[in-house]
Amino acid sequence: MYVKDLGIGYLLDFYGNTLPEDQRDILTAYYFEDLSLAEIAEGRGLTRQGVRAAIKRGEKQLLFLEERLGLCGEHRERGEALSSAVKSVCGVADALEGEGRKTDAERLRDAVSTIMAAYTQK
Hints:
Elements: H1 7-15, H2 21-31, H3 37-44, H4 48-69, H5 71-98, H6 102-120
Helix pairs in contact: 1-4, 2-4, 3-4, 5-6
């Protein structure tokens, strides 16, 4: 039995379009649709070994791209920094609300919501 590295799914989100379509589809089926090697093989007229080889080649390419470009890691770091900042701002909003400054707290929360919406847009 093979253990899935779920970090590959994250890399697939970033770099999947650089892979050949067949390989990308196999990786998507494996990581996002949670299909077994046998299920993927049956649906594509391949052997389990052929599917496993395609997955391993795709994983290797995704890891290579991340090693060279680092986009996924940078995105995670920015997300963690943003999350930390949002927690701090929400703490300030809670303190304002505790002081009876509900309007200021609401404006602060609205600003955070606007920033989060802009960050998460694709």
